[in-house]
Amino acid sequence: MIKEKEQYIYTTCVNESTANHPWYHNLKYLAAGIIFGIIFVKAEVISWFRIQEMFRLQSFHMYGIIGSAVLVGMISVWLIKKFKVKSIDGEPITLTPKTFNKGQIYGGLIFGFGWAITGACPGPLFAQIGTGALAVSVTLLSAIAGTWVYGYFRDKLPH
Predict the structure, then answer these.
(1) DSSP alpha helices (H): ranges in the chain?
(2) pLDDT tens per residue, the chain (159 residues)?
(3) How far is residue 87's CA from residue 90's CA, in Å, rounded to a whole number?
(4) What whole-number distance in Å separates Cα of residue 114 and Cα of residue 143?
(5) CB 51 within 8 A of CB 115
(6) Interior CA angle at 121 toward 120 and 123, to 5°?
(7) Are the beta carbons of 80 and 74 closer than 8 angstroms?
(8) pTM (two decimals)
(9) Are 136 and 51 in contact (CB under 8 A)?
């Protein structure tokens, strides 16, 4: 029982903000999302063709983008730890250790297969719809359904 509680702690959000702001305070996230979407379009990250090239090992384009994102993430985490950076609301950022389990492998494979088949992952999905690729709405609805199914069965799954 204790082991289950420990694992549950590692799968819940530990950096949840206690700040209470009016709804318009979240407009900065909308602006960041729009900028992020424009960058995705310009970098061809949302291109189904580029995604297929990546999975067929025909082009380095997507691997370069993903690799640079990992590098930026690594440097960012190092800087957050080194300088004890606080959140935008002044709250401390805590990085908790995670435990590995085989479900991460299965989840990663399912995610990768879905990405290869549909040519979309959650980030570019909204940018693709924003550019007029409305067929991607089926992928969005499938992602929402999959998230709901996971949430429904989460307590019954091994973590």
Answers:
(1) 2-10, 27-42, 48-55, 61-83, 103-118, 122-130, 137-153
(2) 445 555 444 555 666 667 787 888 889 989 998 998 899 889 998 888 888 898 899 999 999 999 999 999 999 999 999 999 888 778 888 888 888 888 889 888 988 888 888 878 777 888 888 888 888 889 899 889 988 998 999 888 776
(3) 5
(4) 9
(5) yes
(6) 115
(7) no
(8) 0.67
(9) no
